[in-house]
Specification:
The chain is mostly helical. α1 packs antiparallel against α2 and α2 packs parallel to α4. It contains 6 helices and no strands. It has one domain: Four Helix Bundle (Hemerythrin (Met), subunit A), CATH 1.20.120.1630. It is globular. Helices cover about 65% and strands about 0% of the residues.
Length: about 190
């Protein structure tokens, strides 16, 4: 099997799983979809189509890029699966939901990063850039990344307004938003 075929299959595995989760397979739905969630869905669908078409049409002259893309796709899928397993019993709501947080998850990948699902999605988008060697796909990484940062900040605002504010403040000091915080602030307790 070629790297191109491996990357198409990896893309389908990643984004098929991500889509399943957003359509009610993993996350709890709230009463209505917010405009932010609708934007993620629409822009995400368009970006997926562009990535898949680019992957199918790409001429893989650089096996190192293609292999790196495959590794990043698998990393995205692994991080997503780990986060999904961690929250399976106490599921989170979808992006931009206005619910009040009921608990603070600090196990699994949440021990190191506050938003492992968004981090997994970003890895998936970045994998397409690496796999194809097409820097134009960076536009999708930046666009989706901006939406994920906005959603993450909105979620963090919900914690700040909730009874979990104190615990979340301490948690935020010792973890990174999308990548591990290698230098936690002094006084942050695990």
């Amino acid at each position: 099997m070629t790297w191109g075929a491996c990357n198409v299959l990896a893309f389908i595995a990643c984004f098929g799983t991500f889509t399943w989760a957003m359509q009610g397979g993993l996350f709890r739905k709230t009463s209505h979809a917010s405009p932010g969630l609708t934007l993620i869905r629409v822009l995400g669908a368009l970006s997926m189509a562009v990535h898949l078409l680019t992957l199918i049409l790409a001429r893989h002259s650089n096996d190192l890029h293609a292999a790196a893309g495959f590794v990043v796709y698998m990393s995205a899928l692994t991080l997503f699966a780990w986060a999904a397993r961690t929250i399976w019993r106490r599921r989170l709501t979808l992006a931009f939901a206005e619910d009040e947080p009921a608990h603070l998850e600090t196990c699994g990948p949440y021990r190191w990063i506050r938003h492992p699902f968004y981090a997994a999605y970003l890895l998936g988008w970045l994998a397409g850039v690496l796999a194809t060697g097409q820097p134009a796909l960076l536009a999708t990484v930046l666009a989706m990344g901006a939406l994920y940062v906005h959603a993450a900040r909105q979620e963090e605002g919900k914690f700040a307004r909730s009874a979990l504010n104190g615990a979340y403040t301490s948690y935020r000091q010792r973890t990174g938003m999308f990548i591990p915080n290698l230098w936690p602030r002094k006084g942050a307790h695990p």
